[in-house]
Amino acid sequence: MNSKPLPGHPHFAYRGNELFAEQVRLSALAQQHGTPLFVYSKAAMLAALAAYQRGFSGRQVQICYAMKANSTLGVIQLFAQAGCGFDVVSLGELTRVLAAGGLASKIIFSGVGKTRPEMRAALQAGIGCFNVESEAELEVLSEVAQSLSLRAPVSIRVNPNVDPQTHPYISTGLKGNKFGIAHERVVQTYQRAAALPGLQVLGIDCHIGSQITQASPYLDAMDRMLDLVQAIEAAGVPLHHIDLGGGLGINYHGETPPQADQLWQQLLAKLDARGYGQRALMIEPGRSLVGNAGVCVTEVLYLKPGEQKNFMVVDAAMNDLPRPAMYQAYHQIVPLKPNPTEPHTWEVVGPICESGDWLGHDRHLNAQPGDLLAVLSAGAYCMSMSSNYNTRNRAAEVLVDGAHSHLIRARETYADQMRLEHLPFPSSSAAGEAPAH
Ligand SMILES: *Cc1c(COP(=O)(O)O)cnc(C)c1O
Predict the structure, then answer these.
(1) Mutate to test the pocket of ligand 1, among 70, 87, 167, 206 (most ligand atoms within 8 A of CB)
(2) 325 C-alpha to center of ligand 1: Å?
């Protein structure tokens, strides 16, 4: 069959007049599992990882998948079996890595608000490194480690103060945001860390933002990091590794971020030129490993043509796909079975009682109630940010592997949603006892 891959999504292609994930027809998955349904391509995830691996070939590097992008166990298992470590931001994420068979020694623990119980559990599990975000956290971590007669392996997150030129909510490496240690305080913070009895200083890290589509912010960050490494080591604190974080963008709507291997060629050239070519490296990519490996299949429920706007109501909503409502993000929306007649312009919206519940503005589509659409680039920060708002069950997830598909998360049930709740009052069967309204 003639196969036409979607531009920028090589593992999703029209064959005949039907959209496939690898060799599996998406409409067949929707029929089997219902909608909304997340479908991921294993080959797309491994291809994204391979781009990083190519970029680093011959170097000492640990790729830690930033699993908050998509924390489903099946996705974690896939990356664990491909040799990845994990960047976690909570004890919940750490627990997921261990449940999926990932190694504790390849876990790094980031985040500005680690609690003592989280530190204790991570130390007992034997994680590889804590990425510490404040001077106060260093003191607490040292204390917790000492209480367990352990030394916590640490890296300090520094704020290199470079502008990643991305959305302000996902920009994290500028002065004036809550992440990392300010440039001017870095050396003294390292000296303090080296003096604390419960810590073992391993490295330095930064993470400058997300959905970065240019190489220049990374090159600037690398320069600032190397300046800091030089200053820290001159002050007597040796560093084992340099961790440049994640943040590489993907093509949602015609963006052209550098390919991971090309970006790292440039970064490694800088590292070599400055004499740090032998240094162990770490990276924490999230979105760029999974974002374009997933789609969300949704069914058209109603068409509401109007005087000013035409609304297309679909069964996926902001609780499933929060990025448009949260960041005004763009996701491409395509039909599973294209219809050759003239398209109309639609506001594609979900069923939730919020005006912010939209998935796409001004989309040229031709679809009828019952037709299926695919929301593209839905592999990152969709399912992992989903909620039960409006008491909607969270969607099911399927991982496609060639001609096979695995249900990696069943659709939630209403019983699942209510499982932890309790009615506070004795039930009353007499109608007369009900409060009057
Ligand atoms: C979110 C996050 C990442 C991953 O970011 P992406 O943009 O998804 O690559 C990496 N490191 C840290 C510390 C993060 O908070």
Answers:
(1) 87
(2) 20
Question: What's the maximum distance between 2 C-alpha atoms anywhere in the chain?
Answer: 84
Walk along the chain (437 residues) in steps of 10 and give the mean pLDDT of each run.
Answer: 90 97 98 98 98 95 98 98 98 98 98 97 98 97 98 96 68 67 93 98 96 95 96 98 98 97 97 96 98 98 95 98 96 95 94 92 96 98 98 98 98 98 87 55
Tokens of 215: 């190489």
Amino acid type, 273: A
Domains, the chain = 3-41+291-418 (2.40.37.10), 110-285 (3.20.20.10)
Rounded (10°) angle between helices 186-195 and 135-147: 10
Q: Which listed residue (64, 84, 296, 353) is catalytic?
A: 353
Q: Is 353 a catalytic residue?
A: yes
Q: How far is the CA of 247 from the centre of ligand 1 (A)?
A: 6
pLDDT at residue 180 in the model: 84
Tally DSSP H helices, then E strands, for the chain: 12, 22
Write down the residue that tokens 């929301």 correspond to. Answer: 375
pLDDT of residue 167: 59
Dist. CA 114 → ligand 1 center (Å) = 16
Q: Which atom of ligand 1 is nearest to the CA of 381?
A: 8
Unique residue bearing structure tokens 């997340």: 38
Strand 37-41, strand 280-283: pairing: unpaired
Three-state DSSP class for residue 296: strand
Handedness of CA 226, 232, 233, 235 (dihedral sign): positive
Q: Read off the pTM.
A: 0.95
Long-range contacts of 140-144 (CB under 8 A, 24+ apart): 140/116, 141/114, 141/198, 141/199, 142/196, 142/197, 142/198, 142/199, 143/198, 144/116, 144/119, 144/120, 144/198
Rounded Cα gap, residues 415 and 174, in angstroms: 44
pLDDT at position 353 is 86
Pick from 49, 109, 110 the residue to mutate for probing ligand 1's pocket: most ligand atoms within 8 Å of its CB. Answer: 110
CA of 172 to the centre of ligand 1 (A): 10
Ligand 1: residues with CB < 6 A are 66, 68-69, 87, 110, 207, 210, 245-248, 284-288
